[in-house]
């Protein structure tokens, strides 16, 4: 763990190993490790809602395990489209750097989430309201996504200068990732664990579509 | 197979239609490679599209999956067959100097770009298909994804026509001017849908745009209606499997209906 704190710090500052202007080859392999190390931290805190009985420990373990699945799974679904998009836009020669930027964004998101986890625990202490817990977690994810984007853009800025088309690729990745990520999060439920429902890795009910659920929440029948 | 992938990669990277390649007045796009590629790639998208029949129906609809894999290539290629003669005639009238074969190659290339992007969106489609039961949502998602893919196919077409027009003009100019172009493109390495900038672009771009707009209108209208004739693609969970539906209505009305039922909750329940 300690071996990863120093790279995490350098990533956040954009210096040393992760200097956007002088990217080191070996730093690429550190980024997935950072995601694997930091994203479960927030997952564990998120799953600690309603941590009153010993069997609820499982929810913590499950939520922690599901966080890297959420991040890597979403990226895996979006990558083929990103690859072809970069190819037709004439950006294939920069693909390595683009992927590096994406990974840096994911790692930044994970670290930001980990740093926000005390807030989540604090809210859980303050209120047992499940809806508040859902809402608060959603806002923490939004905040961390913004942090991740700031990091990603730092690496993309070099590419923007090289070719304007990178802006299209960047925006496309953002739209695809959020669009798929929301649904991925919904499919991988429960992360928080409703108090009335037994602890499970996946919900027993069949998969549903997040966007239709959200639509029905806003416009109830 | 590997050489096919190489050819596909070259096409997508824009090497097949690089500005310095074009003056030969034909495209290095062998039909024997790119027609099968178009079939394979559109079949791939059809495969992911057909997943809905596997997961949302009561019993897995393998026939629907097979139908999807056959219908998607049919959609693209039959539309091409229907529109090619009139496209050729219109272009000849306007004064586009592409030969029939060169034009066929160019259009097949555009279709390949289109379906390659569509196939790359396949995993996203598959992921949503597995986790969605709502039929209207899947219809709208398919339309959106295919529209995105279609946009790239069109961008390829437009940019290639521009390069063609521009390189013609450059050919008729003196040598130093011509020398400048390869240097320029070596720096930028334009992709398949990239805009290549030339000093004299505005004038020649006009011709390319006119041809392009004619193509879009003809191909788009026929394509949309062809898609409508070949229904069902996704396969409504409420209806039994059928290869084709009775002829009725048209495409644009149906998209509006689908949107309305998604927003107005006329479709299947979200749960």
Secondary structure elements and pairings:
The complex is a heterodimer of chains A (221) and B (271).
Chain A: H1 2-13, H2 27-47, H3 57-88, H4 95-126, H5 130-162, H6 165-187, H7 210-218
Helix pairs in contact in A: 2-3, 2-4, 3-6, 4-5, 5-6
Chain B: H1 2-13, H2 31-55, H3 62-94, H4 100-120, H5 122-130, H6 135-171, H7 175-188, H8 201-229, H9 251-263
Helix pairs in contact in B: 2-3, 2-4, 2-5, 3-4, 3-8, 4-6, 6-8, 6-9
Structure description:
Chain A has 7 helices and no strands. Chain A has helices spanning 2-13, 27-47, 57-88, 95-126, 130-162, 165-187, 210-218. In chain A, helix 2 (27-47) packs parallel to helix 4, helix 3 (57-88) runs antiparallel to helix 6 and helix 4 (95-126) packs antiparallel against helix 5. Chain A is globular and about 55 Å long. In chain B, 42% of the residues are buried. Chain B is elongated. Chain B has 271 residues and is mainly α. The N and C termini of chain B lie far apart (44 Å). Classes of the chains: A mainly alpha (221), B mainly alpha (271). Chains A and B meet through helix 3, helix 6 and helix 7 of A and helix 1, helix 4, helix 5 and helix 6 of B.
Strand content of chain A: under 5%
Arithmetic mean of pLDDT of chain B: 79
Largest inter-chain interface? Answer: A-B, 34 and 35 residues
Computed CA radius of gyration of chain B, to the nearest angstrom: 21 Å
| Count of beta strands of chain B | 0
Number of E-state strands of chain A? 0
Q: Can you give the helix content of chain B as a percent range?
A: over 70%
Largest sheet of chain A: none
Q: Number of DSSP helices of chain B?
A: 9
In percent, how much strand structure appears in the residues of chain B? under 5%
Oligomer: heterodimer
Tally of individual helices of chain A: 7
What is the structural class of chain B?
A: mainly alpha
Write the H/E string of chain B, N to C: HHHHHHHHH
CA(first)-CA(last) distance of chain B:
44 Å
Low-confidence sequence ranges of chain A: none
Uncertain runs of chain B: 174-186, 266-271
Give the N-terminus to C-terminus distance of chain A in angstroms: 50 Å
Rounded mean pLDDT score of chain A? 87
